Amino acid sequence: MRRKLTNWLVDAAFCLFAVVFSMLIADSVLPADLSATARAVEDTLWALACAAVFVRRRWPVALAVVLVLAGIWAHLLTGPTLVALFTVAAHRPPRVTAWVAAVALAPAPLVVVRQVLEPEPDRFARGVVFFFLILGSIGWGLYIRSRRQLIASLRERAERAAVDARRQAREDMAREMHDVLAHRLSLLSVHAGALEFHPGAPPAEVQRAAGVIRESAHQALQDLREVIGVLRRPENGERPQPVLTDLERLAAESRAAGMNVALDQRVGAPEEAPPVAGRTAYRIVQEGLTNARKHAADAPVTVTVSGGPGAGLTVEVCNPAPGGSQRGPIPGAGQGLIGLAERASLAGGRLEHRQAGDRFLLTAWLPWPG
């Protein structure tokens, strides 16, 4: 794999650091009585060590160990050694870094013992500075490694949050389309079924049913356009959401479709209900009426809404148990009640559905802070 230009530039910068660092310390670390041959060997090893910086990414551990061991005899390898130790700490696991650091710091006790046996302040000071430089390079490498891991973790977390947000948006959109379209399409099915089972109905009744079918189809298309429009242009905000006061309109639509719906609203000021609670209550009643049309189209349905600030909002939809309709059941995916339970839970409430004798009850409680 070809190296990136930035990697070449970084390696060149580290090589330059090694060269400059070794040149700065040369006068203080090279013995004064060094022969010309020994100085040539020192310079050759120093040049090779500085050039080896360019392979530090491929063999960081081997390079660091070789430079540490070679530094026992050579005097100008401190700069390349610091770069190699930094690379190990920044790119290798902490366990490997610990082993390399142990090798690099192994001569430290010998320096202390030698100072005790043969005191030489300048030599001891150089040794202390050297080992502090080793610790500094390793510590800086560990910092860079932990920072890189932190950035990678934050990036991964952000990507995961974006995926979760997209999935949640899809689920919300699917739930919204189900709630809206299932209600409209069930109206279409009811009136189409009425025309099918009563082909000899009076023209006025046929005309009324056809008008309801046309209006329901038009409204379903309009709702679908609004939902898809929000999906395409999320920056424009969400589509207008229903509130608790819209229950009267919902019940009127169902009555116009031929259902026997009794709405008992015992909320003193429904316009003051929290938007989330009102919207969720509307969707619960909407789904309850849709299910009633599917399974008991000719039977009466009772919708009761009660509560207020502090006590919460209670919604109950009661209709005969499935099986009482003379028409065939309207097909469904069976996801409506699951979606309602999720809606109620997201709103901080709860939802239950059960069959009590020959009646089917859909009950929900939603919070309404006082």
Descriptive overview:
By secondary structure, this protein is an alpha+beta fold. The chain folds into two domains: 155 residues, no CATH class; 128 residues, Heat Shock Protein 90, CATH 3.30.565. Helices cover 64% and strands 11% of the residues. Strands 1-2-3-5-4 form a five-stranded mixed beta sheet. Helix 10 links the parallel strand 1 and strand 2. Helix 5 runs antiparallel to helix 7 and helix 6 packs antiparallel against helix 7. The longest helix is centred in the middle third of the chain and has 77 residues.
Number of helices: 11
As laid out across the biggest beta sheet, the strand order is 1-2-3-5-4
Average pLDDT for all residues: 78
Helical percent range?
55-70%
Q: Mind telling me the C-alpha Rg?
A: 40 Å
Strand content: 5-15%
* Count of individual domains: 2
End-to-end CA span: 65 Å
Q: What is the strand tally?
A: 5
Structural classification = alpha+beta
Uncertain runs with pLDDT below 50, 5 residues or more? 324-333
Shape: rod-shaped
> How many strands, which pairing sense, and closed or not: the largest β-sheet?
5 strands, mixed
| N-to-C series of helices and strands | HHHHHHHHHEHEEHEE
Catalytic activity: ATP + protein L-histidine = ADP + protein N-phospho-L-histidine
InterPro entries: DUF7134, HATPase_C_sf, Sensor_HK_TwoCompSys, Sig_transdc_His_kin_sub3_dim/P
Transmembrane segments: 64-89, 96-117, 123-144
Domain Signal transduction histidine kinase subgroup 3 dimerisation and phosphoacceptor: 170-234
